[in-house]
Design brief:
heterodimer, A: 158 residues, alpha+beta, 7-stranded mixed β-sheet, 5 helices, 7 strands, 32% strand, B: 879 residues, mainly alpha, two-stranded antiparallel sheet, 48 helices
């Protein structure tokens, strides 16, 4: 039986961005270019890009960006394998949702959160559906180096 | 000083007009404060009118010119002294000041300057005398009294010092601020108290303390209680002492192990020398883990802690920790308590838990005091220690349980993954302490697999890789960890250290520069910050690479010595006399500090190497490392600095204004330039002479350190000073003897001495006689010849199963060299116990293998031994 663990959030900076590489490489099928990491650091927005800490160790992360001024796009979400099944991912997504529905962001006209997910990644689809995301259209040949290359768009209206 | 000569410039002791005199005073003062610009400006004003008055800006020549014009100008002599002082030539400066005072007998400023240098140079009698004069001139100043008292005290005249303090206090009127309760009054009273106690007058000291308490002038309650307890113990007033120490605990000093020690001493009715040594100890070792106790004593303490302290201070970690040391290892109580202690720490995540627990691995001390315990450091002792076995087994059970159920054995709370992580971490450290690096790495790898973002894990793994013999892999590993958290200065320094140990000095400088101040040359910054560990490692690194661009100007030490100046006047003004006396005494032992000894040893070895291989330094001075050696020459000491800073803090409770002064001074301080970045100039000096200088500094300042005498021997034997070499060996042996064993380095030198060192031809017959008989005495009571000596040690080594590997090797070498026993006797001595002996390290194993290889018929043993070493140092490419 696994139980929820206590987590804290923390920002992603130039000094600790290497840890994001580790999280992504253990959790995601594709590897991101240096530009991705540079942008995350440059954004300096702890509400959109953050680590989940447990007892001082980085165990997960979420990175998002604002798209078309009205959407928050989740670029990556990852949790170290040994720490999965303890609601860490849920808390990370929830924290972004909370941010998206805050007065400050709503007033800027942000209306939805969205992301891409590989069509056969059923665990992920179920995970997001539990959090109120809905399956949208399929995008063919979205990924270049992984199979299947197609993905769905998942969105949550705010 | 009045003269009728009308020409002021011609001299004859003529005073300048008042305006100029005042201006000049301002110059001197500004010079003192290092406000050179202002000073220069003012000086120029004076100079316009009195162009022949010498000034510092044109240095000595001008002053000499000034003196030529007016031998009787105290001002010129004073400035002359100031210039010498700025050149750190204090003896000449003192002479000049004294000359100035002869002319102007009542010049307070010069007297103050003189006193400053006298205390700096530890001319204590002179200091006291000068302070006396100042006091006579300025009896209304508190500072004058205190400085005079201090002078007496430092001179060793405690009674005189007390009398002066008393006189000072009696001059005060009723209701004076200096009699009321204040920090200064309290400090002065406690200073007086410390002088009283210095001669062991415990009764008087205690009475005085109580009197002060009655008058209610003490603000430092902690010191009051600590001192009371201390004196009461010495006076065998155990119950009162117990009360004092208990009061301290009640006041919140529950985590101060020395307070616990005092409490335990009171309960056990221990006083005298033992109690004093125990109370002097710093750190987390209380009496119960240091002193060999009888069963009754242990029982008494256990009851006191179980029934009183644990209940009274349930939150105190120190109390719990001490409780653990009162149980017999492996008893049921012990198991229960240690288990609870470890679990709590694992949940919290305490990286140092392994080191903390290793203080349970205590063995009777081998050295000086048989009644004390020492912590087992050698892997072979740890491995076989009952506490180690018990803890390791406990941790293994915890790991098994956490891995399968995420719960502690017999517990139903689910633990987060970090608990398991810290348990693996602890297990790995325990394996490390037992010298089992392969298993240690395997366990820490589990942790890295689970939490690849854990910086601590990379650091531990790097250390293990290094121990297992692969420094390059260690560098890679620690650097990966460093990349994860670039704000972590500790891992950055650790990376730097490993890079240096892997002979990558360029990368090392780049790495450490990340944390240096950016505006200037990082190397300069490192030097300014006195980062001595870096400089020592760098020197060792370059020496390994064969660059002997010479090292170690004791620059930092001079600076630290110099820094005293800041305190001389400040501490007296602020009445922090107790701390000031500590600082003075600490400074006196500066050149005996461990890091200085290490630095000096490095220098001496380098010089001796150059002496033995005179051709090498030509190769060593290639230009391509010119950028590197600058730092190499500046070793010395961070620990010293740290301790000093501690003292500073103590000394300056209200240090803010001092700091301001300090930074002001530092801003003006000129940058030290390295005039000789390649160390060429230093290389050109005769190496043996230079080595001798350092050796004599060590002999003078660190006579209790084995290294000192080994160095002294190495230097003296090369200089043909047979008697001094002999003396050095006696001293080295006397440091070792009490333990009944012998250091392999001493053994090696005794053999070397008997084989190679001869008295100079034509020595006096009396000298020859003494030399001859002492030479035999050096071998000990039971041996008459070198061969006897070697076979005596062969037997001793055989009889002691754990005997140190290095000593085995040295004895074996001596046997071969002097034809004692057979070749196989010698090689057997090395290999007979395998690696289950003390002193096993990568280095000693290599030495053993090389020795075996050189012994006829021991090739097979060499191979077998290498295979054995390979099993421990599995990553080393040496086997």
């Amino acid at each position: 039986m696994k139980r929820e663990i206590v987590i804290d959030f923390g920002g992603i900076t130039n000094d600790n961005v290497e840890q994001l590489r580790i999280i992504n490489s253990t959790s995601l099928p594709i590897s991101y270019a240096d530009g991705f990491y540079k942008d995350v650091v440059k954004a300096k927005n702890e509400s959109l890009n953050k680590y989940a800490y447990h007892n001082g160790f980085v165990i997960g992360s979420i990175c998002c960006r604002i798209q078309d001024e009205s959407k928050i796009y989740i670029m990556t979400l990852g949790v170290l394998p040994s720490y999965r099944g303890r609601n860490v991912g849920t808390k990370l997504v929830q924290s972004v949702v909370d941010y998206a529905i805050s007065e400050e962001v709503r007033s800027k006209g942000v209306q939805e959160i969205l992301l891409h997910v590989q069509i056969d990644n059923e665990d992920a689809i179920k995970f997001y559906q539990r959090l109120g995301f809905e399956k949208g259209e399929m995008v063919e040949n979205y990924y270049k180096r992984i199979d299947p290359p197609h993905c769905y768009i998942l969105r949550k209206k705010l | 000083m009045s003269s009728k000569d009308a020409n002021p410039q011609a001299g004859q002791g003529i005073l300048m007009p008042k305006k100029e005199t005042d201006l000049f005073r301002a110059v001197v003062k500004q010079y003192e404060c290092k406000q050179y610009k202002k000073g220069l400006k003012a000086a120029d004003t004076v100079l316009k009118k009195f162009p022949n008055h010498g000034k510092r800006d044109e240095a000595i020549n001008m002053v000499k010119l000034g003196l030529m014009h007016d031998m009787r100008s105290h001002v010129c002599w004073h400035v002359y002294g100031l210039i010498y002082r700025s050149e750190r030539n204090y003896n000449e400066a003192i002479k000049a000041y004294k000359q100035a005072l002869r002319i102007d007998k009542e010049n307070i400023q010069i007297m103050k300057d003189l006193a400053l240098l006298q205390i700096q140079m530890r001319d204590l009698a002179g200091f006291a005398q000068t302070q006396h004069q100042i006091l006579e001139l300025k009896p209304n100043l508190k500072v004058s009294w205190l400085a005079f008292a201090l002078g007496k005290h430092m001179k060793g005249d405690g009674k005189g010092a007390i009398a002066i303090i008393d006189t000072f206090l009696s001059t005060l009127e009723n209701g004076s601020v200096d009699l009321q309760k204040s920090y200064e009054t309290s400090e002065l009273a406690l200073y007086k108290n410390s002088i009283i106690a210095e001669n062991g007058n415990w009764k008087e000291a205690l009475d005085h303390l109580h009197e002060c308490k009655k008058k209610d002038i003490l603000v430092d309650q902690l010191s009051y209680l600590k001192l009371s307890g201390y004196y009461q113990l010495q006076l065998k007033l155990y119950n009162l002492a117990k009360e004092s120490f208990f009061n301290l605990l009640e006041r919140g000093s529950t985590e101060d192990y020395s307070v616990h020690t005092g409490y335990m001493l009171s309960i056990l009715n221990i006083d005298g020398e033992v109690s004093r040594t125990m109370l002097k100890r710093k750190g987390a070792r209380a009496l119960s883990s240091m002193l060999v106790l009888s069963n009754d004593q242990q029982k008494t303490l256990k009851e006191a802690y179980q029934n009183v302290l644990i209940e009274r201070f349930p939150k105190s970690i120190a109390t719990k920790r001490i409780m653990l040391t009162l149980f017999n290892v492996d008893s049921e109580d012990w198991n229960t308590s240690v288990n609870a202690y470890i679990r709590a720490s694992l949940i919290r995540g305490v990286p140092s838990l392994g080191d903390d627990l290793s203080s349970f691995f205590i063995i009777p001390a081998t050295s000086s005091n048989k009644n004390e315990y020492a912590i087992a450091k050698d892997a072979v002792d740890v491995k076989s220690h009952v506490a180690y076995k018990s803890i390791a087994a406990l941790v293994d059970t915890v790991i098994a349980s956490l891995e399968s159920t995420s719960m502690f054995p017999g517990d139903d709370d689910v633990q987060p993954p970090s608990t398991l992580l810290w348990t693996w971490y602890l297990r790995s450290v325990l394996y490390e302490k037992a010298g089992d690096y392969s298993n240690a790495i395997a366990v820490v790898d589990k942790g890295l697999d689970q939490t690849p973002t854990g910086v601590d894990l990379y650091e531990l793994k790097a250390r293990l890789l290094k121990s297992a013999g692969d420094i390059n892999a260690a560098v890679k590993c620690v650097d990966t960890g460093r990349e994860l958290d670039k704000q972590d200065r500790y891992i950055n320094n650790q990376t730097t250290k490993y890079l240096l140990q892997a002979n990558k000095e360029v990368e090392a400088l780049e790495t450490i520069a990340l944390f240096a101040r950016h505006e200037s040359d990082p190397e300069q910054n490192i030097f300014d910050m006195q980062v001595t560990w870096y400089e020592l490692e760098l020197a060792a690194c370059l020496a390994r690479k064969g660059y002997f661009g010479k090292m170690a100007v004791e620059k930092h030490f001079e600076d630290i010595h110099e820094d005293q100046f800041d305190f001389h006047s400040y501490c007296i003004r602020k009445v922090t006399l107790r701390a000031y006396v500590d600082v003075l005494r600490w400074e006196d032992s500066l050149w005996g500090q461990d890091t200085y000894v290490k630095a000096a040893e490095g220098v001496i070895h380098t010089y001796l190497h150059l002496h033995d291989n005179p051709s090498e330094h030509v190769n060593g001075s290639e230009p391509d490392y010119s950028s590197m050696t600058a730092a190499e020459r500046k070793k010395a000491k961070a620990i010293a600095r740290k301790k000093k800073l501690k003292a500073e803090k103590k000394a300056a409770d209200s240090a803010k204004d001092e700091e301001k002064e300090d930074t002001k001074n530092k801003n003006v301080k000129q940058k030290t330039k390295d005039d000789d970045p390649d160390g060429q100039e230093l290389l050109s000096k005769p190496p043996l002479e230079e080595a001798k200088k350092y050796a004599s500094t060590l002999v003078k300042n660190a006579p209790k350190c084995l290294t000192t005498w080994l160095c002294q021997y190495d230097v003296c034997s090369r200089r043909g000073k047979a008697m001094l070499a002999l003396q050095a060996l006696f001293r080295a042996k006397s440091l070792e003897d009490s333990s009944g064993s012998m250091d392999s380095e001493v053994f090696k030198r005794i053999v070397d001495f008997h084989l190679h060192v001869k008295l100079a031809d034509g020595s006096h017959t009396a000298v020859e006689e003494v030399f001859g008989s002492e030479k035999v005495n050096l071998l000990g009571t039971s041996s008459k010849t070198l061969s006897d000596f070697i076979s005596e040690w062969q037997e001793k080594v055989k009889a002691s199963p754990l005997c140190n590997l290095s000593l085995r090797v040295e004895v074996a070498k001596a046997m071969i060299k002097c034809n004692v026993g057979t070749c196989s006797d010698a090689s057997n001595l090395i290999v007979c116990k395998g690696l289950d002996i003390r002193g096993v390290s990568l280095q000693s194993c290599l030495e053993a293998i090389n020795t075996l290889k050189s012994i006829n018929g021991a090739e097979k043993q060499a191979q077998e031994f290498a295979a054995l070493a390979k099993s421990v140092y599995s990553l080393s490419s040496n086997f």
